Amino acid sequence: MTEDIQTRKKLLELFCRLAYKSGNFTLSSGQASTYYINGKLVTLDPFGALWTGQVLLSMLPPETQAVAGLTLGADPIVSAVSVVSAYENRPIPALIVRKQAKGHGTAAWIEGPQLPAQAKVVVLEDVVTTGKSAMFAVEKLQEAGYQVEQIITLVDRNQGGAEFYAEAGLKFASVFTIAEIQEFASQLKLGN
């Protein structure tokens, strides 16, 4: 196995052990679900953050000038990718998109370094259901003058997000699908 495949497998196991739960849940989209994935339990874990950064960095197009995402789920993800990129001698800054404009000072929507106009930014997300959260980040970044053509998520719940992004002309990729997580969790007898 290559290092990338091993890292991805370790990240998958961590998602199954820490983040995946069976039960009755209401998602941020308002939908009811029989399972829940709390990605922050993985992305805020020291090894989870490292492996997240390594896997996502390997998925970024070479021309990527920054990674960004909507607070709070994307905060540890974009930070992990940025730190790992520095260690890999491919420094990529991170941006965080607020859910509402800053209430003081500059009233900014976006936190992080100022990039050149038309900089190529990839939006990162922990879990995609309908796709609306990451799309909000895309819109704010585009309003700021950046080029956003791709969204990458750690987990795709396969509930319309990919189709939503395709309709908007955006490329979309996921590290894992929900089916992959559920299958691996059942092999580990986890999720309850």
Automatic annotation (TrEMBL):
Protein function: Catalyzes the transfer of a ribosyl phosphate group from 5-phosphoribose 1-diphosphate to orotate, leading to the formation of orotidine monophosphate (OMP).
Residue sites binding 5-phospho-alpha-D-ribose 1-diphosphate per the record: 98-99, 102, 104, 125-133
Reaction it catalyzes: orotidine 5'-phosphate + diphosphate = orotate + 5-phospho-alpha-D-ribose 1-diphosphate
Native source organism of the sequence: Tumidithrix elongata BACA0141
Binding positions for orotate per the UniProt entry: 129, 157
Swiss-Prot/TrEMBL keywords: Glycosyltransferase, Magnesium, Pyrimidine biosynthesis, Transferase
Pathway of action: Pyrimidine metabolism; UMP biosynthesis via de novo pathway; UMP from orotate: step 1/2
HAMAP family listed in its UniProt record: PyrE
Gene Ontology MF, one: orotate phosphoribosyltransferase activity
Protein family per UniProt: Belongs to the purine/pyrimidine phosphoribosyltransferase family. PyrE subfamily.
Cofactor (UniProt): Mg(2+)
Protein name per its UniProtKB record: Orotate phosphoribosyltransferase
